[in-house]
Structures are given as C-alpha cells and as structure tokens.
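Service request form, structural biology core

Requester: graduate student, group of Dr. S.
Request type: structure prediction, single chain
Budget code: on file
Notes: please return the result as structure tokens.

Sequence provided:
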Amino acid sequence: MNLRTALRVVEPTNVAFVGAGGKTTAIFRLARELPTPVIITTTTHIGTWQIPQADCWITDPTLLEGEVASGNKVIVFTGKSVNDDRAAGLSPREIDDLQHFVKAKGWSLLIEADGARRLPLKAPGQNEPVIPPWVENVVVVAGLTGLNKPLGNAHIHRYQIFSQLSGLPLGDPVGEDALLKVLLDPSGGLKSIQENARKIVFLNQADDESLTAAANQLTSKLLDGYDVAIYGRLNNEPKDEIIASKEPIAGIILAAGGSTRFGKPKQELLWRGKTFLENVVSVADMAELRCVYLIQSNNAYSQYISNVNKNNFISLNNQNWQLGQSTSIRLGLQSLPPNTGGAVFLLGDQPQIPAQLIQDLVDRHAATHAPIIAPFVGGRRANPVLFDRCTFPDLLALEGDTGGRGLIAKYPVEYIPWNDESILLDVDTPEDYGRLLEFE
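Core staff response, request fulfilled:
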C-alpha cells in the first residue's frame, strides 16, 4: 500500500503535516504519488537541504503557473528569507491566497506546519503547529526510533513539554504509554487541529519486528482520537512500505428476518449454551470493531447488547424488514459514523463464526484497503464479509432481499484462506440446525 492509499486522500487535496520522525519525507512521498500538480509550502520553515526533492523551488507566486506549464509537477514555494539552512514560511495572508489559487487550478497543496530538528519525537511548542483553519487533512507523524530512548534532547524536540504531557520524568525511557498520551493529548499531537479536519496519525520508522509490534498495538489505541492510524517505514528506498492503515471498522449484525422457513425465531435457538444472537454479539465484542449495530425487527433482543456493557453497541429497529435484507443493510450503513472505513456484516443465524476470523478480516483491510474481503474455505466464498467504504454507495442502492453478493462482480475480492468448513453453514431449516449442532 502506498501513502496516498493509506491516507485515503482524494485529489485535488490539501494536507498539513506536523510532528517528527520523517514528516518532510512523507510530504515529498505523497507529492510524487498524487496525479495532479502539487505545491509544497510551510507555515513555519522548511530545511533547504530537503527542497531538492522537488522539481523546483520558487519564492515568487507569479511563477507558479509557468513552472507547472513547463512540466514541473512538485514545486516548493516558500518565503524569501533563509536562516540557518531553513527557508521561511508564508504569512497567514500569503498561504490563504495560495490556497485559493491552488484550489481554483485543481492542484494539491501540502503544508509543513511545524519543525522537529530532525529528531524522531516531539511535543508542540507554544506557537505551533500553525495549521490554517481550512485544512482538510492533518497528518501527525511520530518516529518509532524514539521509543525506549531516554527522555531528553537527544531524541525528543521540546522534551520538557513532552515530559509534562506524558507524566514521564526526564531521563526515563519513552515507552508506548508515554507516546500514546502525548499523541492523544489536545495540547500534544491533536493540538490546533480543527474539528472538521480528518485527523491522521502516522507512526514512521517501524524498522524492526519489535517496533512493528509496538506500532500495531499503538495504532489500534490511537483510533480513540484519530480517524486513521498508519504505521510503516519511509526511507526513500524500494523496500519502503506502509504496513497498515487502520480505520474504524463497524460490525452490522443482520437479525431482522422473520425466520419463515424455520418456523420460529432463529435468534433464540441455542448454540453452546447461549442463544444464536448472544453468540454473535459476544464474538463481535471480542473482535476489534469500533462500533456494532444490531439490526432487528423488534426490541426483544436489546438485552443481549446491554449484557456486553459497551457503549459502542447500538440496537436499531428495522420497521421495513419485510421488504428484504437490503433494508437492514441500508439502515446499518446510514447509521455509521462518517469516519468509518468499512463494515463487517454478521448474520444472526451464524453463531459459529469465530472472533479470530472477524479480526483477520479487519487486519487484512488495514493492510490492503481492498473493496471486499471474504473468507475462502472448501473452494467457496463464505461469510462474514467486510465491505470497504468505497462500496457503500452501491450497498445503499440495493433493493429487496438482495445482499452484498450483488457487488461481487463489480469489485475485486480479497480472500482470506480459512480451514474450518463449519462457517459455510447458515441455519434456514431445522435440518440445518441439526447439522450445526454436530459442530458443537
């Protein structure tokens, strides 16, 4: 996965980058991946040693159009003064004018909004970051090579503020908890980010197995404050990679059917000492799902959610369930938070689905952002299926008793091999229920 896919930016775009540990490298990487002309600028300063990564450097805005017309795709535009090998940033008026100009041209604008003295970690100072209020995306970068290093000026820019925000004494090794506190603090990583901007955190420098494992744990927790949590390594080499781009993934439990073929509500059937629906809710609770919606045709099953004791479980009553499964799909999708990256659809008559399978779907989505991800067992596609947000418009357009199968021909499907063929069984008849009980 490249950085543009991981960030899920739609061009033309504007993005502000803050933090430390590879921020400028990330800016130039994204600039090369975007198809439109890209203007790189700064509201503070940018190192002159980094500018040669662009096609040209200008300080006069009247030259922008001519440089693009000459074939220059990535252009650095800064203030005219240079001090200590750092080119000055634009004033608020200048950057507002630049934004209007670039937007009218259909180009992208990338902004370096603070400095870090080439150190892997930092805490923001009193007057930074300088993020214009109209910025659509903010990427907060942190270098993982600062983990487990002593808290001091050798590894952390503004280390005294980092100590205050994290509660970690000077000289102590910077652990995952300390970094997490700083990145989630409104005076730390989230400082000066407008409420309407997409908040993205990028843990760079995952250069070995231990740092990669730490990043995996941290990014899951960072979704408490960010819309997207990414980890990987950017070194300007062919082996560079984004390992994972995590987004909030929802679970939608489809349990509003009338069980007409079975003859009584399947949700109340027993499997391993609990009802079908209790099993499905419990499995959704164990998987790494940010919110779970139980779609039912009455409120008889809401107690199963209350037993989970989680605020992210929500019961929705589908009054139009007789019009088909598409109405439950639509109700679930229309209820999702806007930053949801995808949804796993769980069936109320499949209590045997393990939490690990759901987690594998979520992990594969983080690694690929594939439109559709499904298990593959016994030569067949199986449930549950994860649908990326790019498929939501088509899912919302479904009618009648059509499920997500109708989208399989339109989108490429990423398959996860699975060895347990019991997941192929859903219970429509008493005979199906008997076969399921054989797997107990």
